[in-house]
Amino acid sequence: MHILTAIISIIAVLGWGNWRKWKEYHATLLFFALGNILYNFLTANYLLWRMDADFLSNHTITELVYTFVVFPATAILYLGNYPKKRIKQILHNLQWIFIYGVWEYVFTLTGHIEYQHGWTLGWSIAVLFVMFPLLRLHTTRPLLTYILYAIVSVLLLWWFDVPVHIPMEERINYGQ
């Protein structure tokens, strides 16, 4: 399923992505990748969600495919087709939240994602309502985006009691 997601992402970005503006989006592509890498680093051995590997060998390799294929493709599609009118912007955000939410729901049904430590599909969808607007904001106000991202990240780390104060190799049995 994860390989299929990557293949669909590549096909979609080749068909509908706005490649002429890729340089404008480059910093935002890196921001998106950084967010996923930071999640995996800060929650190591205490993941809130974990991609269950299918054809890929493990969660880490699966996350790298998302970091360097799926998420950049998403950003190019999302930003490259971003409308100018306010109502269309809202609908564009809702469309992408719906796509990601349904796709993740399918993952829950097929066992390709596992939630832990209180995380749920509802939390994932709530984060999508923050993630997509932040991607757009990053194209115009990157410093503000980093500040907002840091605030949201710290709040989520605190809310889910992620033991960032404990070395990652010692987190395996934390809270059990």
Automatic annotation (TrEMBL):
InterPro entries: CBO0543-like
Transmembrane portions of the chain: 29-49, 64-82, 94-113, 119-136, 143-160
Highest taxon of source: Bacteria
Keyword annotations of the record: Membrane, Transmembrane, Transmembrane helix
NCBIfam families: CBO0543_fam
Name of the protein described by the UniProt record: Uncharacterized protein
Organism: Halalkalibacter akibai (strain ATCC 43226 / DSM 21942 / CIP 109018 / JCM 9157 / 1139)
